[in-house]
Structure formats: structure tokens, C-alpha cells
Predict the structure.
Amino acid sequence: MTHEDAGHYAAKHPPGTRPDPAIAEAVLARVENGHITCSDAHRIARDFGVSPAVVGTTIDLLEKRIAKCQLGLFGYGPQRKLVEPVDHVEPELAAALHRLAVDGRIRCKDCWDTAAAFSKPRLAIAAACEHLGLKIRPCQLGAF
């Protein structure tokens, strides 16, 4: 949802969608100034043994915002985005990212998996995608 949609995140979900109370409690315990970090959201998903999408839906239903995307794509104050394209991408990494891309898009989860496979920080993979012109979506938490 866009900046103009702030405070209306629950509208992304079917009417009557309700969060799991325990997950909602865990989310609210980590919210600061109406935001929860991507890292905290993923930690909750691991702790509860649910997909990040379940936690993302809970965050939406609670009308909270996700901050500090681990790929650097959003949630970093006035500049919003942290990631910048790199000058060069190793051919092996570029080939791997292009294999995963569909119509110029690569999934957030595929970026995370590629970071692990290449022993690189997630932000480095996002920077490589920026250089290659690959859009990262969808977000595992459903932010985009």
C-alpha cells in the first residue's frame, strides 16, 4: 500500500479477517511509534512457527507499519530506501538472480535464499538487483 494508504492496511484483507491473538500480542510487544521492524516480524514468525505472511497480515490488521526492510527497500525515515545499486555484480550472482526473476521481478524470499547461498548480506543482494534492474516483490510480509 502507498504512503497515502497509511492507517488503512486492514483493507488489504477480506472483511472479517482476524489475527491470531497470541501473534497480535507478540507484534504489539515489539511495536515502537506505530512501527515494527522487518527483523522483529520475521522473528515472531519463527517463534510461532508460521509464515512471515501470517505475521504481515496481523501487522496490517493492527494498522501498524513495517520498518527497516532487511533488503533496504523501505522504512528508513525520510529517504525511505536504504539500498543503492552496486557498480558491478559478479557474473555467477547475476546469472542466479536472472534465473529466479520472472518478468523482471524477483521474490523477496528468493533474495534471502540467494544471500544465504552466496554467503552475502541481504542488502548486498538487493543492491545487485538494483544494478540489474530487477524489482523485488512480493515481500514475504506482504508490505509490497
